[in-house]
Amino acid sequence: LTITLAIVAILVFQAEVAKPYRIPSASMEPTLHCGKPAEGCRSRVSDRVIANRLVYRFHAPERGDVIVFETPDRVAAACDEGGTFVKRIIGLPGERVSMQDGHVLVNGIRLSEPYLDSAYRGRESGEWARNPRDGYFVLGDNRAMSCDSRRWGVVPRGHIIGRVDVRYWPPDRIGDP
Length: 177
Description:
single chain; seven-stranded antiparallel β-sheet; four-stranded antiparallel β-sheet; 3 helices; 11 strands; 29% strand
């Protein structure tokens, strides 16, 4: 009975409060590491993070949040993969995102990105359609290795699982992402 109750408690906790995820690709390097031998990975071991599933019940997602989300159907065609992704929110609903020589502009104003290492910025330029009222424009912190909103559009609010609040593995990298 005790083991059954413990298993049920863990399943409910993961479904409603927080769920662990592994970083599988270099799209968020160097903020979150993936494990070698995958291309572009800086670490031997992939970072493990916890997605806070409760936070967005109390307020809307914010610019700069690193989120976990279920990919929209169109991602599979653009990226040859799908499932669950981890990216950073750049554009909020109703905003227009563009890039000039690797620098992000939101509604024409250059975005300050202190979390972004200049070596990972890239040199891309482009402009995308205004975000719909429930859409979030997301980018990886490793722009050259990230399949993100630049290729497949925005993440609908209903696809966001939660905000990455803590890295719990490996032990030498425990803490905020």
